[in-house]
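Exam prep: given the inputs below (a chain plus JHZ), describe the expected output before reading on.
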Amino acid sequence: MTCRICGAPTERVLDLGEMPPANRLKDSLEQFENSYPLVMEYCRECSNLQLQYCVDAAELYANYLYVTPDSPSLEAHYAKLIGRLASQGYIDKSSFVVEFGSNVGSFLRRLKPEVARILGIDHAENICAIARERGIETECRYFGPETAEEIRSTRGPADLIVARHCAAHNENPHLLIEGVTGLLSPDGVFLMENAYGLETLRNFEVGQVYHEHMFFFTVQAVERLFAMHGMRLLDVSIEPVHGGSVVFAAARAESRHPTLPSVAEHRELERAALTPSLLAEFPRRLEEMRRQVRGLVDTAVGSGQSIWLYGASAKASTFVNYVGLTREEIPYCADSTPVKQGRFLPRANIMVRPEMEAFGAAPDYFLITAWNYADEIVAKIRANCGTRPRIIVPHPTVAVLS
Ligand code: JHZ
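Solution:
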């Protein structure tokens, strides 16, 4: 295959075989589910990590079930991002901000008091409706050059465009950046946040590999992508949310904003870390994690103990199917998202139940599948169930908290 950023040939890093789309929770056990190849590959030329096979967007995003959870760690992250945007002069009280992939508007709600105007863009009607109920003006559509042109002609250019955890969900990043350059004001800034490819590899996060994540962006690949569209990176930071994320700020090459030292720093750190041996180690370490989790589950179930998953995240879907867990051994998964409750994780067929029900059941073990929120979930379990349940956290290394 070839790199969808620079066109050079790619090499295979990980092959998970055929998997069902991660967020496609089933309404019933009988419901038919499609599976598609899940293969991660690497481009030596621009250091891009991508999925080899991309599922059609209409198949992936129709009736989307992901609702950004209310989480103290995400709230702290939003506050930090907004502080940084203001202190670097990327926004002020006169700014017009457009966020695409805005989901239920959690970030825009925080940003609203700091700027003049906000607009959310999301492709899922059910999600846009929730955002609007929360007072966030949201248009239901895909972002691309056409949408950008229409927004520009009706509302004017954007001073800040935000894409948090959605740019990697688009098979063609060139079209997306074309849209960005079409809408951005001359000195406007584009803020793009994604799961960081280097963190995915070095934390051995198999759960990050699912069909929506068509790219695992790296600093070097994104710098190349922006340069191909007359854009320049201004700033890069690595943040702990979503299992290790990278936040890029970029602008037109001729923008008044300076390029900060963080860009060269992270580029060099990444060059030193993203080595052939890390790429080769990734599937080997995943196998090791799989054996450890399997062993813990087999021992617990074999001795008659009960286990609940905690977190029906997209990451959970790849994780449980990679480890080979099913409802025979783990019947339930706790999750606070109402639209997920009563449905089943794809292939594993584990039923999603409200978290209060899980606390009431007080199983012998919780296996944290939303491990990126492990601290706050462990605190909730301890507050509601005391010290009885043991808690398995699979990342960054498999640990059992007793
Ligand atoms: P969470 C989604 O991935 C999908 P997921 C998407 N493709 C993406 O890129 C990333 O987000 C960023 C639940 N939960 O956020 C809520 C509780 O039940 O890791 C969620 O279902 N109680 C857009 O799905 C899940 O866990 C809690 O206290 O991997 C977390 O999903 C908390 C904090 C969460 O994203």
